[in-house]
Amino acid sequence: MRFVVIMDPVSTVKVDGDTSFALMEEAQQRGHRIDHCLNTDLYLDSGRLHARVAKATLQRDPKHPITLAAQEEVCLHDVDAIFVRTDPPFDDNYLWATLLLDRVKDDTLVLNDPHGLRQANEKLYACYFPELMPETIVTAHKDRIREFITRVGGRAVLKPLGGMGGAGVFVLNEGDSNVNPIIEATTLDGRRPAMAQVFLPAVKTSGDKRILLLDGEPLGAILRVPAGEEVRSNLRVGGTATKTDITPHERHIIDTLAPRLRKDGLWFVGIDVIGEKLTEVNVTSPTGIQSMSRLDDKNLCAPVIAWVEQHVKKSAR
Ligand SMILES: Nc1ncnc2c1ncn2[C@@H]1O[C@H](COP(=O)(O)OP(=O)(O)O)[C@@H](O)[C@H]1O
Ligand SMILES: [Mg+2]
């Protein structure tokens, strides 16, 4: 089969950490052809979507994890699957790429569905399920955020809606002299909404659980524990991954989300759960599969690529 992976430049790839790299490597081992391109390499000609791609060869070499062949053109209606794995921000180019990919999705499996990618801002999507979430507001108003901090007992987390990897996530303590400037910086002085959420002390004692879901079913989980005085458990800011299981209540969270994820074509997602409360649904480039596979001593990429093999749109081949 021929798979096209739309992602960031190959120079950003981390061999031992990237989920995109691990999925591509698994696809290569299964004998598929993998092409790499950027979201700006898509082009529409007479209503059909094409891309300028380069055939990718993967090797576990931290200096040169992916070798790209010469660029060539491909009609995306003729390939078997397209993986959208560009990291946030969800900027204009990202939006336009999803609109272009809409043109091809009846002929070619697109993972995740471009319509779903537009539906699912990673922070806001969880808010479809307020009963599963910690107490949360989304607003650009400083006074509302200040009131919220008081309402939830004096400690809240403030996060930008477009962030990832813990970037821009602040803890606000009532009475702290940095509360106002942090709110102003995050909301651009009231010109951009942000998410304020009750601070969950469980993050320090039991960490932030990442559960990867494939077609609404749990693939695996890891617990990320923040380093030192940090409250952010993201691996890229020093969080440590440890082995974990899925609790009955987390299974309930997954079963509640699953029908909506399937309806939105969000086939491969990562949910974040702190103290059994859902905080985030990562859909753009969910990660964690490498640490999960290592800790569970299983190749978790295999079921993902097997799922893709089973769901390609045969009529296009
Ligand atoms: N409500 C919360 N209470 C305590 N810690 C939180 C809360 N929300 C987020 N965090 C911490 O901040 C980290 C990043 O937050 P998250 O919402 O997952 O955004 P992202 O990972 O997209 O940057 C989490 O992994 C967690 O350690
Ligand atoms: Mg997160």
Structure report:
Helices cover 26% and strands 30% of the residues. With 317 residues, the protein is of the alpha+beta class. The protein folds into three domains: 2-118 and 304-316, Rossmann fold; 135-198, ATP-grasp fold, A domain (Dna Ligase, domain 1, 2-Layer Sandwich); 202-282, ATP-grasp fold, B domain (D-amino Acid Aminotransferase, Chain A, domain 1). The strands form three sheets. Strands 1, 2, 3, 4, 5, 6 and 7 form a seven-stranded mixed β-sheet that branches. Helix 1 packs across helix 9 (301-311). The protein is globular, with a radius of gyration of 20 Å. The mean pLDDT is 96. The structure holds adenosine-5'-diphosphate and magnesium ion. Magnesium ion is lined by residues 272, 280.
Compact overview of the structure:
This protein is 26% helix and 30% strand.
The CATH topology of the largest domain corresponds to Rossmann fold
Low-confidence stretches: none
CATH architectural type of the largest domain: 3-Layer(aba) Sandwich
Beta strand count: 16
Whole-number average pLDDT? 96
- Strand percentage lies at 25-35%
Outline, from the CA principal axes? Answer: globular
The DSSP helix count reads 9
Name the bound molecules. adenosine-5'-diphosphate, magnesium ion
Overall radius of gyration = 20 Å
What portion of residues is helical? 25-40%
